[in-house]
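User: what does the whole thing look like in 3D?
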Amino acid sequence: MPCLCAGETQELRAELQSGQREKKVDAVKKVIANMTVGKDVSALFTDVVNCIQTENIELKKLVYLYLINYAKTQPDTALLAVNTFVKDANDPNPLVRALAIRTMGCIRVERITEYLCEPLARCLKDDDPYVRKTAAMCVAKLYDISAELVVDRGFVDSLRDLVSDPNPTVVANAVAALNEIAETSGDDSVLELSTSALQKLLAALNECTEWGQVSILDALAKYAPSDAKDATSIIERVGPRLQHANSAVVMSAVKVILRYMKCVDAESEQASGLRKKLAPPLVTLLNSELEEITYVALRNINLIVQSDPRILEGEIKVFFCKYNDPIYVKLEKLEIMIRLVSERNVDQVLLEFKEYAQEVDVDFVRRAVRAIGRCAIKLEKAAQRCINVLLELIQTKVNYVVQEAVIVTKDIFRRYPQKYESIIATLCENLESLDEPEAKASMIWIIGEYAEQIENADDLLETFLESFADETSPVQLQLLTAAVKLFLKQPSLTSSHDMVQRALSLATDDANFVNPDLRDRGLVYWRLLSSNPDAAKAVVLADKPTIADDTHALDADLLDDLLGRIATLASVFHKPPEAFVARDARAGLGGAQADDVEAYDDFDLEVAPDGVASPDVDDQQQQHQRAPPLDVAKPPNGGAPVDPFGGASSAAASVPAAVAPPAAKQGNGEVDLLDMDGFDGLDGGGPAVPAVPAPRALAPPSGLLDLAPGGTPPLSSSPSSMPPPPPRRAKAVVCQPSQQSGGLGIAACFDLVDGRPALELDVSNRSARPVRSLAIQFNKSPFGVAPASAQLTFSQPISPASVASYTVPVVCAPQMVNHQAFDPNAPQLQIQIAMKNNDTGAVFYYAVPLPFDVLWSPDGAVERSTFIETWKSIDDALETFGTVNDLPTGPSIEAAQHKLVAKHAFHVARRSVPNAEGQEVVYFSIKTIGPDHYHFLVELTFKAGFNACKICVKTTAQPFAHLAKAAIENILRSP
Amino acid sequence: MTLSCLFVMDLKGKVIISRNYRGDVPMSVSEKFAQYIQEKDETEMRPIFTDEGYTFAYIKHNNLYLMCATKRNSNVALLLMYLHRLMGVFKDYFGELDEESIRDNFVIIYELMDETMDFGYPQAMDSKILREFITQESNRHVSAPRPPVAVTNAVSWRSEGIKHRKNEIFLDVIEKLNLLVSSTGAVLNSEIVGAIKMKSFLSGMPELKLGLNDKLMFEATGRPMTRGKAVELEDIKFHQCVRLARFENDRTISFIPPDGEFDLMTYRLSTHVKPLIWVEAVVEPHSHSRIEYMIKAKSQFKSRSVANSVDIIVPVPHDVDSPSFKSSIGTVTYLPDRNAIVWSIKQFNGAREYLMRAHFGLPSVSSEDPEHWKAPIECRFEIPYFTVSGIQVRYLKIIEKSGYQALPWVRYITQNGDYQLRMV
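Assistant: Here's the predicted 3D structure for the full assembly of 1399 residues, as structure tokens:
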């Protein structure tokens, strides 16, 4: 930061010390002017602070402003100002009192804060509402600096009192401050309102400023109505706000009404009346003079129509794009139009889409073409009309229009197999304009799929095959599959047969080792074709499940959450707040800056996530299910399962030698299907065929060949001779594949693996590229859990459309401990995790629940005497109780004990309870890993003849007691 | 719903003045914003974006950006409205808002930034009230100003004790017609966006009641409409002075107006409206030599009304040359920078039809650029003494305890809004 030169500083100092008021004011102004342009004027701190005692309010404001900016740099000198602050807070002029309180709250210097409490308490009860409203906000400021101070001084209660203040502006600020505190502390109970306070709020809604109305409405949106009647009465009071000129008020009112409508029967007359009432204000929001507001409104309307399209079903016309709409507005309108399109309005909508498809902006044009395809997929009865429009567009011969049309046509075929084939001829006329991989891949898929109906399918494929080496991997994969399809459909055709050989050899050629997917798919086909052509037919030409248009559709839970956050950033990004609010852990994952911005634009061009990049995914799935036929090819020396990753050569060499397909015999190329010499070379000239993986090895743990769409757990590859592993926790999907995650989906859980805590991951890759390695980082947590290694490198890249499992050992690191991150009311611990795809740089976030028992240390055993001592030393008030009924293991104490011991709860003693016949108690000791080593003492009480047990947990780590109790309950309930 | 810091920046993203309200976002985030506006492709820019956990929302005015940053899940509608309103306050204070006026008034700007927002929550934003205690001449104040009662009052937009020698109030009913016509001549969407603007010069604390020929009001009160027809307004938005709960109850528009100019209400009707001015274009392109236009304009309103300052804007290819025009009325000009011709007609009477022909040369080597072919024809006009919706002010009752008589003046105007006719 540039500083003032010495001369200037001297001069200003002299002026600041001047006795003339005018001169002083001018000097402070000059100082502030320098501050404004970014010069460092902290050298004048003392001189400026000395000007603070003045009657001139303008001068005072300037000095205060200066203090706010520089107090942190010179806290000691800033303390000089405290006296003035305290005096000003008693000034007869309310403006001065408020100014002092407002400024003190902004000076984030602890020692000054201490002096704030007294004046603040007084100002909260000031006669002048201007002072009270400023003081209310100051409580929120103080909470941000020192939450304890606010709680200790009872300021939260003072705020609650102010909610019933006679002045509406004070009420609004008090609610805003409470809202703020609830958000900062994560404790919504701060906002809990009594019925009378609620009535006060609703009354203030009619009287306070428009900004205050937003505060009140946002607080109401968090309030849970007790019943339908309660909800209805609040909706009635909030309803008039829909008529407010301020769009922010309208949007918050919409939020409250939608929230409370959930208590009203959705089919009732009342609900339909409310829907009618909501539509006009939503439409008006689009007419805002502010394009930015229109954008926010559109993003929110997108959410609203997803949850209930009836609200705007008759209004599709208002979403028609105007020529001069900004592009971000146009794209949003398009999205909403697709959501609202129905058989009633489809003709008009198609005309619009056609119009857009002829505009200038390439991105928008593509979206429009795609929108036509999505209409066809959505509305079966209108599909033919959509296709006619697509045909008209293809006739324009505009390169990118044709390509986009080809891509959507493929999706239409996937939705309506064996229908609308007439379009194929037109598509085939436009092959030469295809130069984008996605369009090419789609066209090739169509040719393969409809090979028997395309007269010159072989010629067409031949043209593509010529440039095989230069194509991208999705195109190569499609070419390979299409060649196989053609061969299976028309085996009599010589050309088809030549082609399949060429395709197979190109795919398995060692030049393609960079692309193991292609090679593996080639080998699978090869083996299928050579062993059992009928099976090959059944697999490759199997019926595919049809697709539906669910582009950009949000998960129901997320949608519901977002509807409660209307008008906030989350509703604009369509992401939960955790996904974009700043967190401490972010700093470590550098390099994400530029990409992040991209990540929030979920305007991806993809249609169904699994529909585009690899239309043959389903083929692959079929292969899986039909894996057994491969057994036919069991080679003579095939026996023990072999690590399928032993090397490319062993996998390659596993092509059976025994069975020759008839086709191969006629082969005239240099590469015969049986030409094992070709593979010998790979094997270092060895005598080939070391071993063949057992059929199930086709789905190795890394999911190399598991081309099933994400979410399907890979088949187990553990050899059957191993003892059955202990029951594992089920992984839960914690991150859906999305644009932000770069197409990666994550299912995860924390569990003990070999007695040590670990994070178990299933990474499913829905992107078009293989994933080689990921970086992982945990956010700080109360136990300091951290991955043992920040890098996950896969021995084999996770290829597109496959799933890989990975176990990340977890350790506890003191520097990762953050006690603030613990919410004592949360039912379980959650670890926030950031992951970065090292190949693409995409960073994404998710949270995984951390079962408490995973944190139990293996060295938690204690001596009996120590246990008894500790037990006695802890106050009985710190006991936490629970009961588990219907134990799955029956009333057996041993069984329960066994289960707990397996989880590192150490058995200490067992005894019968004196004076209570049939009652027995068992004691356990539990210690947690991590730097803090919390100790939990557990007592289980059983009563003979009752299949139940009582749990008592005693600990000094009281905040975690309920977690320990819950974990024990869960263990006991587990089968 | 908070914002953390506020920046006023120039077009390159250089900070002119800023204010940090919460201290949880470093002021250096302005650099990230500067990077965004400089490096992002225009089509990729969004008015709201996130970068490393910091979210930015901004509006642009003249050659300035007004930007705020937050790291919470803030109420972004509120942030944008605040920015917009703050811009309005600045304009009220300094006239036109630009870099210079901000630099010249930085002390006042700081004061305004402090008074309109506290800890990221908008406070008083009415410039008339703000002026009562934040003034450019505070040096000359004999005694320190006090906060006006209005700042915290339920009536936060009007101070007590206002005096006018002549008590008058002016009402302008201005309707804008939004219209989208397809290339086949079908009306795709038509919509009336109306506003009732007021200029109030009334003394004291007057209670006003406005009566419109609102169909729902007649239904609500059960009174029959005596003459003329009633209008069904689809959605109405009111200035904060109007008592919304009262309106919800019995459709009465009652309020205490601010002093001076304000928009009392806006309303919207999406009824099917006959395009007031219909334009048809016949284009005959002769590739590589010339292009000819025949434009027909027809007024479809009553013959006793007149549309003033009619501009019909027709897009032409960007590489045309040697224009020549022939029209039965008005003047035609070629605007090369907009790639359009403008046919201006000072007075266009109702139920008339006029023709205009334009002729251009085309270069023999032409770059095929479809852009200006696809732009729609636009039309601007203003028709006084007429509203498309038929809305009427039936009465404006003014009651003040001093009992003065005040005169309401009412004026009706219809204008074009987004008025677009797509070309074939």
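In plain terms: The two ends of chain B are 47 Å apart (CA to CA). The domain at 168-273+388-421 of chain B is CATH 2.60.40.1170 (Immunoglobulin-like).
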